[in-house]
Amino acid sequence: METPHDPHSINYRIREGLARIATIMRVDEWNRAKTLGLNPTQLAILTALDGRMTGLSVKDVAAHLGISQPTATDSLNALEKKSLVERRASAEDRRAVRVHLTTDGASTLQSHQPDRLAERAVASLESGQHQELLVMLVTMIRELQDQDAIPQQRMCVSCQYFLPFEHSGSSQPHHCKFVDAAFGQSELRIDCRDQLLSTPQKRASDWNKFQAGSAPL
User: Fold this and answer.
1) CA-CA distance, 64 to 56, in Å (whole number)?
2) Residue 205 has what pLDDT?
3) Are 162 and 211 a contacting pair, CB within 8 Å?
4) Which of 3, 162, 202, 215 has the most CB atoms less than 10 A away?
5) What does pTM read for this prediction?
6) What is residue 96's DSSP assignment?
7) Are 91 and 10 in contact (CB under 8 A)?
8) Alpha helices, DSSP H only, in 37-68?
9) What tens digit of pLDDT does each residue of 139-170 get?
10) In the chain, ranges of CATH 1.10.10.10 domains
11) What single-letter DSSP state applies at residue 9?
12) What does the pLDDT read at residue 4?
């Protein structure tokens, strides 16, 4: 069979590659969820709640997982019966209810994790490729956020504490005001518990600085 003269665009082929990786990640989540006596949606909910001191509403849970609110409610009911999550009145509005991870829920997330196929694939990359891939993922996630395709993620690049390339020329060019320390590109967080969402103006300004500093010479 000959190679087609007009192959699909590179964007299409990258999407094909991401789809293959996503398939393996779903297998990983099925295996881990099964080990914990959960299904993948229930495990994803526990992960989304991890580190969120103010909890999430049912609507927020559904948005973060990309599922319907009835599906989120059914999964939350099952987790509540297992004492892994609990509903509490919101501190801001007593009529509103927020879902929180319980101590048992947090312990479940910290329990033994089986070897993951996706992590083996990532480990096959060289150290420089790890950093490049991380920056690419941050860029793609930010684009999806700008399109309102996914909720705001707890990333460094959208955090009030983030100072991009504050130490330009250093191996640790960024600065985190929360811990008052410099850090490198390879330490960028996609989901940080201490993230405080910055204003739209700061996010735009920081992103311009981040892109300029990250561009290859």
Assistant:
1) 10
2) 97
3) no
4) 162
5) 0.85
6) S
7) no
8) 40-49, 58-65
9) 999 999 999 999 999 999 999 999 999 998 89
10) 10-110
11) P
12) 60
